[in-house]
């Protein structure tokens, strides 16, 4: 009997969610179509260099989703579902201090962590957990009411969780069970037509629209599903041409003359969707809610800790320059980048600013010289080649921007109150699974390739 392994389960899961979201949010289909056309054009224009950050098959299938959950138990359960399809919690994001709009959640991303798995299908889901215990947002009474409400709901049916555990333990499922697992998993993320309690939803919305989206309803749903595009500026212009109003900025690094770095994202505004409400007088009627939206992203090379520090410093300098000169943020950022970030892949690699994997160059004429012992020398002398490691994660500032571009109200925060400490270790404890550190994953990839190069060239460790 054929088993469907976790890699194939993940690819099918991503496809099913994409089909579901396309029926729920038709503008998403436009976004996917336009992305595919932009990608084909970039490939036609730039040939195989366009595929340095992932081949077209990977990029065409590539999506990230976003979901929002209410309790640690819900998070543990979703970890079992994602674990079954080879997606592991990676990175920790605390959006409670985000400026200008703090969001009462902490987040992680579930994603594949092995290079081969990422190449096969890099589906990732940005997963946020509400923090009702944070007194800056919720008082003790509201926390109690939220917990009662959330504890009474079941987002993931027992049958789904049992199948997930089995798939994770056995590395896959039979065709029949795989179908059932995928049907139940996909359905868990569909928008429910269960009526929303108006009073309760409004109470939460006064604190935070995200709290209402999470704790005001009895189910969860995909908040957005994001395709990847090879030229986000071209995509942005084309979407406006289709009459879809995008948010006013591309989040993340500016467009500049050097290599694509980290992650650039943009989105179109939350869409008004019909939702049923139960009014205080008990009647049920249809109204609309704007909580879901469309987003698209372009990915570049992952930065090392040193590169990331430089990035953060450049972001701060761009903010300052925009404020003090009246330049647009994009123009200020582009100017700062041209000044401060090395503009070639080899310089980024040799300066330890970005992660690359290295391989011994084929076809270098043997001229009897000894290979140098340092990375910069090996790159300059054409002894080795560098391939960028794709940034597979998220950016806290962009994530906060995506959340807040999507809020219906400002919400209310009492920042004088004490925050509850939350970090990666806390999240690992909640999940009872290790939360991976993205930097370590990238560093391990680079380290493995360098050991191979040292061995092949007969050098001591580079
Ligand atoms: C998640 C927002 C973060 C991203 O791409 O940075 C995100 C949410 O709105 O639930 O998806
Ligand atoms: Ni997103």
From TrEMBL:
Give the protein's cofactors: Fe(2+)
| CDD domains (UniProt xref) | VOC_YdcJ_like
Q: Which residues form a coiled coil?
A: none
Keyword terms of this UniProt record: Dioxygenase, Iron, Oxidoreductase
A GO MF annotation of the entry reads: dioxygenase activity
What's the top EC group for this one?
oxidoreductase
Q: Which InterPro entries match?
A: HGLS, YdcJ_bac-like
The family assignment reads: Belongs to the 2-oxoadipate dioxygenase/decarboxylase family.
Tell me what this protein is called.
2-oxoadipate dioxygenase/decarboxylase
The scientific name of the source species is Streptomyces oceani
State the taxonomy lineage: Bacteria, Bacillati, Actinomycetota, Actinomycetes, Kitasatosporales
